[in-house]
């Protein structure tokens, strides 16, 4: 077990826990203290990482499924042994509550198990040519891995969204170069340690740490990369795509997910789901509710209920399992608060006392926000919820669709004919009915349109994205 008092963490490269003694700090949003230090890799070290992954691919691609499954089982056991350390690091590195961090570890273990089981159903197909009039032909397919996969994870789900990229790549025979978010690099280093303890062959999984602004282009432009699996901002995704050349992408990017309320049938339910969707983990989720769209008539009844529920949220330290905790990105606080002030200058009304204490932004609920206000268009990644009013269902759809994003949306109401009509017109990867947007279950397809993503995630789709089918045709 790691001694959590030891701040300096080595990273897994080519089967060894590595440090170059050039440390960078990972600080806590709770009190700005140093949580851990990780190596800042340079260009020659990154070159070695990719060479190691490429060399390992030549043998790993031929390792049988049973052997891979055995190694994955050992990996799960290592994650379980380090569960308390994962939870502690999530609390301190990204201010996630102990309760939510524990849920994330458990969900990640389930994700690994489910991925292995689903892959068993995809191991090959056979084709009888006589169905198509080719009586002398029979064919079968093999799953071929693609090569070196670059996996880049976000800070908000630093274990689950990392593993959702790692496990489909490894079980299908690819090798991985993994870049954790700078804010959660200690967790990334710990993931590497658990794979090291599971005895995966050298070079199959490698961790790269350093500032994205300094090493990002070196990573994403390497010629050995066959696929980049990235979760993060739309701006960063666009930059990666511009630098990466002819590689495949799986991108989960930003969102401006609307909650559209079309009636007052069950306002308690609607308000509960909206508050949960907007303020869970401080709104630092791509799938967070980031705006409410409804009519003024419904809003008069709905808004007081939302206000009451937001007022009851527990605010403070993640160690105390608070609902609202310090946000991770200190640099974004000024930008977020500036958007709030601009919205108020344009006529929005703040329904709760506004307070900022270091990185802790108290929940902000803005009523009567104009659809053209920045806060109605941009993704704040903070505990802020704008409420936008309109008159017709068609206008609700127009407001929702004028966003550059299209990750998820939710519709609240009792008229399912209207709901389904609206759902078909909304430009989003997923439409949730009478519940907040959410990524899971992990087996469900997960995708975005417009500026919210490329490709489809979810267990089966992720597995298929990491292989290509090789067909062998028998003639007789």
Walk me through the structure.
The mean pLDDT is 96. The chain has 14 helices and 26 strands. The chain has helices spanning 43-60, 65-81, 83-94, 98-120, 160-171, 185-197, 212-220, 234-243, 267-279, 296-311, 332-345, 393-401, 416-425, 459-465, and strands at residues 11-13, 16-18, 23-27, 34-39, 126-128, 137-145, 148-152, 175-179, 205-207, 225-231, 248-252, 257-261, 289-295, 349-350, 356-357, 360-361, 364-367, 384-390, 405-406, 408-412, 430-433, 446-447, 449-450, 453-454, 456-457, 467-475. The longest helix has 23 residues, at 98-120. The radius of gyration is 23 Å and the shape is globular. Helix 8 links the parallel strand 10 (225-231) and strand 11. A 7-stranded mixed sheet has the order 14-17-18-13-12-20-21, with helices on both faces. Strands 9-8-7-10-11-24 form a 6-stranded mixed sheet, with helices on both faces. The protein has 476 residues and is an alpha/beta fold. Helix 2 packs across helix 6 (185-197) and helix 4 (98-120) packs parallel to helix 5. It folds into 2 domains: 11-253 and 453-475, Aldehyde Dehydrogenase, Chain A, domain 1 (3-Layer(aba) Sandwich); 257-441, Aldehyde Dehydrogenase, Chain A, domain 2 (3-Layer(aba) Sandwich), CATH 3.40.309.
Indicate the multimeric state. Answer: single chain
CATH class of the largest domain: Alpha Beta
**Number of helices, counting only DSSP H or I runs of 4 residues or more:** 14
Approximate helicity band: 25-40%
CATH superfamily of the largest domain: Aldehyde Dehydrogenase, Chain A, domain 1
* CATH architecture identity of the largest domain: 3-Layer(aba) Sandwich
Overall 3D form: globular
Q: How many domains?
A: 2
- Biggest β-sheet, characterized? 7 strands, mixed
Average pLDDT taken over every residue: 96
Low-confidence residue ranges: none
Strand proportion: 15-25%
Query: What is the CA-CA span between the terminal residues?
Result: 59 Å
Beta strand count: 26
| Cα-based radius of gyration, to the nearest Å | 23 Å
Class by alpha and beta content = alpha/beta
Instruction: Briefly note the CATH topology name of the largest domain.
Output: Aldehyde Dehydrogenase, Chain A, domain 1
- Order of strands side by side in the largest beta sheet? 14-17-18-13-12-20-21
